[in-house]
Design a protein that fits this description.
Blueprint: E1 2-8, H1 12-23, E2 27-34, H2 41-54, E3 62-64, H3 77-83, H4 105-115, E4 120-124, H5 129-137, E5 145-151, H6 167-171, H7 173-180, E6 186-189, H8 191-194, E7 198-199, H9 201-209, H10 213-233, E8 238-239, H11 243-250, E9 255-260, E10 262-263, E11 276-277, E12 289-295, H12 297-308
Helix pairs in contact: 1-2, 1-11, 4-5, 5-7, 9-10
The structure holds beta-D-ribofuranose and calcium ion.
Calcium ion binds next to α1.
Length: 310
């Protein structure tokens, strides 16, 4: 079993990422940590708990983490436009009943990694605040991190929050810079692939027609998500960005990567939070990141449908 901690800000695609990991036969979720991003921390934490309880995973613990980026105010504009006022608009999922753990997510991450005999995979599907703070506070945990798979960035395609930047990196660019330059084995699942691995209307209908409780609920989440994509971005297809980070653990042939040097500019408003890759290898800097180049959309759609009905 691959042991993972999922650090997330649910969010529709985060919620589906949680379900995909929970339902996978080859992934063991050690714990879930939450961060402010798609919505305020209260909502993202509640949403993580809500989706896990709804799907019968009460035993997976949820820890609330940082309620704002390291050095900036929380960017409040688009999260609500895309994910709804509480971060998980659409189906009426019952309120969670399992309590949130009391320990802060950053302390939980540090203690769990330090005390683990095995190296743990971190899947990061929100702003990288919790991971960056944990790495700053306890650099020794690097030895226990098998790899970090993070949804973020846009290397070749445009960003989705500014022309240059993707949401998760833009919200906390200082944190992203720390994580990307941490020396950990890093996989960047960016908009370059997630915007190509979309669910189309037919795919959502196929998922709904499976008829079980989770497939039907996820189809309703995607209805909402597709609708907000039409309103905000002008296209009706649904990227499930965050679930791709889990998908590559289930089937590594899903996404092709290339290792290169990446950094995050912090000072120019036009490029703030961009993930700039040294594709032509002109800097002489050592590659620090596997960047996603190509994705198999059909395989991803099939994987989501098969897992949701499990
Ligand atoms: C990322 O931003 C959020 O809206 C999604 O949950 C995803 O993690 C895509 O840019
Ligand atoms: Ca997310």
């Amino acid at each position: 079993m691959k042991k993972v901690i999922i650090d997330c800000d649910p969010g529709h695609d985060d919620a589906i990422a949680l379900l995909l990991a929970a339902k996978s036969d080859t992934i063991e979720i050690i714990g879930v940590t939450t961060v402010a991003g798609n919505s305020e921390l209260y909502n993202t934490t509640r949403n993580a708990r809500k989706i896990l309880d709804y799907a019968g995973y009460e035993a997976i613990d949820v820890y609330a983490g940082c309620d704002r980026p390291m050095m900036r105010d929380l960017f409040r504009l688009t999260g609500a436009i895309i994910h709804g006022a509480d971060g998980l608009g659409g189906p009426n999922i019952p309120a969670p009943t399992t309590p949130i753990k009391e320990e802060h997510a950053v302390d939980y991450l540090i203690q769990t990694l330090r005390n683990s005999d095995d190296r743990i995979i971190l899947i990061v599907t929100g702003p990288m605040t919790n991971i960056a703070v944990a790495l700053q506070k306890a650099p020794d945990i690097k030895d226990k991190i098998d790899r970090i798979i993070m949804m973020g960035g846009a290397v070749i395609e445009p960003g989705n929050i500014t022309s240059a930047a993707e949401f998760n990196v833009f919200v906390d660019p200082e944190a992203a810079k720390i994580v990307i330059n941490s020396g950990c084995e890093l996989y960047l699942v960016s908009l370059d692939v997630s915007m190509k691995a979309v669910f189309k209307e037919d795919d959502i209908e196929k998922l709904r027609s499976q008829g079980d409780k989770i497939s039907t609920t996820v189809a309703s989440l995607l209805d909402f998500f597709a609708e907000t994509h039409v309103k905000h971005f002008g296209f009706k297809a649904c990227p499930i960005h965050d679930a791709l980070c889990v998908g590559i653990l289930i089937d590594e042939s899903l996404v092709e990567f290339r290792k290169t040097y990446v950094d995050v500019p912090l000072h120019d408003p036009l490029t703030l939070g961009e993930t700039v890759a040294d594709l032509w290898e002109i800097t002489g800097n050592m590659p620090n990141c596997h960047i996603a180049m190509k994705v198999n959309r059909e395989k991803f759609v099939r994987m989501i449908c098969e897992h949701m009905k499990k």
